[in-house]
């Protein structure tokens, strides 16, 4: 049995927590399992290191930033090795290079290309727990690169894939993935199992529990992940290929980082959408939901959402291209929210969308735009309605007394 575990920054934030995690690792080691453990930097270490760099240079070299940030995770693995030695567990710490983690050359947003696990396997064969610094690898020039914020999750999953692990456990400060943000939705509850695709949809909407890339990798290599708390003994959430939850909807997410732009009175001719979105793409502005409608006199309106931080740049780009696109006017709504429901079960059950719209209608929530994919339905609503609407939709599909399937029984 080979298990890869990962402990996040809050789980190792101080000496007591390091000792707590060491005790848990010791427990797993006692079962006889071979153990590889990826660690994040302690607490806010990564932010503090970034702040330190800022004190010295407003725009430091990316190579040196990676060199600096990688030390955070190295502190964690060295300290954890010491904590394990204290309680009589054989352990060794390795940085990304020593662990054979080969990554792409892009500083601060590298991808793991390959892992050469010889050293790790060697250490395991000597009966040691192997502690691997998360979030880092070595590129083809022999330089340290880091994997993007939250990247230690991806280190863990990549290790699990390379070592053909039986299990990959991600320990964090929450006890699993929830049906909605518990701070917003009163009746949110822990999900026992969720599919990779559902998790990716929820993560891209800001559920934020796992690094997205780690879920993509887990999907690619079919590695079952367990997300659970390092502070409690709760069961956690299993992320895998097929769901066992017998619910249509797995989760509800709200994303308040949306702004809506409408281009009114565009000529209804080929190539107009290309002109609009080509101009925005050239400025690297990402678009989310798009809606095109035919308006008066054969002219059409094109509406779409962007992230709020991109709103000024998007408006400016469209204004600059007014002649080329040839529209009447622009309108925008800076405060819009996207409410989404996600669930693999909706693929084979027609009527989920209508059901969601009915719930929103009963709650007198106005829908501005709608977008759907196989396992997701999103609506754009006014920001002021967001929390209330999330609770309405959540309870409609997911409250205990209202479990999904019964709606369609
Ligand atoms: N320490 C890094 C960060 O704060 C990586 C991680 O925690 O996964 O983003
Ligand atoms: Mg994280």
Question: How would you summarize what this structure contains?
Answer:
Helices cover 35% and strands 27% of the residues. By secondary structure, the chain is of the alpha/beta class.
Could you walk me through the main structural features you see in this protein, from its secondary elements to its overall organization?
The chain is built from 13 helices and 18 strands. It is an alpha/beta fold and about 400 residues long. The strands form four sheets. Strands 3-6-2-1-9-11-12-10 form an eight-stranded mixed sheet, sandwiched between helices. A six-stranded antiparallel sheet has the order 14-15-13-16-18-17. Helix 6 packs antiparallel against helix 7 (about 210-220). Residues about 405-409 have low confidence and may be disordered. Bound molecules: aspartic acid and magnesium ion.
List its traits:
alpha/beta; 8-stranded mixed beta sheet; 6-stranded antiparallel beta sheet; 409 residues; globular; Carbamate kinase; binds aspartic acid; binds magnesium ion; disordered C terminus
């Amino acid at each position: 049995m080979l298990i890869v575990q990962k402990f996040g920054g809050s789980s190792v934030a101080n000496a007591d927590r390091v000792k707590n995690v060491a005790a848990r690792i010791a427990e797993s080691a006692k079962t006889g399992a071979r153990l590889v453990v990826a660690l994040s930097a302690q607490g806010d270490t990564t932010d503090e290191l970034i702040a330190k760099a800022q004190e010295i240079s407003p725009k430091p070299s990316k190579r040196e930033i990676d060199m600096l940030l990688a030390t955070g995770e190295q502190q964690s693995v060295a300290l954890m090795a010491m904590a394990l030695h204290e309680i009589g567990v054989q352990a060794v710490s390795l940085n990304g290079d020593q662990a054979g983690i080969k990554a792409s050359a892009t500083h601060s947003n590298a991808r793991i290309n390959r892992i050469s696990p010889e050293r790790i396997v060697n250490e395991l064969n000597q009966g040691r727990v192997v502690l691997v610094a998360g979030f880092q690898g070595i590129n083809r020039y022999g330089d340290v690169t880091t994997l993007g914020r939250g990247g230690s999750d991806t280190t863990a999953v990549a290790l699990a894939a390379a070592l053909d692990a039986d299990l990959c456990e991600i320990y964090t400060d929450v006890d699993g993935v929830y049906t909605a943000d518990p701070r917003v939705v009163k009746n949110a509850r822990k999900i026992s199992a969720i599919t990779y695709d559902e998790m990716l949809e929820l993560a891209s909407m800001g559920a934020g529990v796992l690094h997205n890339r780690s879920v993509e990798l887990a999907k690619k290599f079919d590695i079952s992940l367990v997300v659970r708390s390092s502070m409690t003994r709760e069961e956690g959430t299993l992320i895998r290929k097929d769901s066992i939850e017998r619910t249509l909807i797995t989760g509800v997410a709200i994303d308040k980082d949306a702004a809506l732009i409408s281009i009114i009175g565009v000529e209804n001719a080929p190539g107009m959408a290309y002109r609009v979105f080509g101009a925005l793409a050239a400025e690297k502005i990402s678009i989310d939901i798009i809606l095109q409608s035919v308006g008066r006199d054969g002219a059409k309106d094109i509406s779409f959402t962007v992230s709020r931080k991109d709103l000024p740049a998007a408006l400016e780009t469209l204004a600059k291209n007014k002649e080329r696109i040839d529209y009447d006017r622009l309108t925008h709504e800076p405060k819009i929210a996207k409410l989404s429901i996600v669930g693999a079960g909706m693929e084979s059950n027609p009527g989920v969308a209508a059901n969601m719209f009915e719930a929103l209608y009963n709650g007198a929530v106005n829908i501005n735009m709608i977008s759907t994919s196989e396992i997701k339905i999103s609506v754009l609503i006014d920001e002021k309605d967001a929390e209330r609407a999330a609770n309405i939709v959540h309870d409609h599909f997911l409250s205990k007394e209202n479990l999904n399937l019964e709606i369609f029984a």
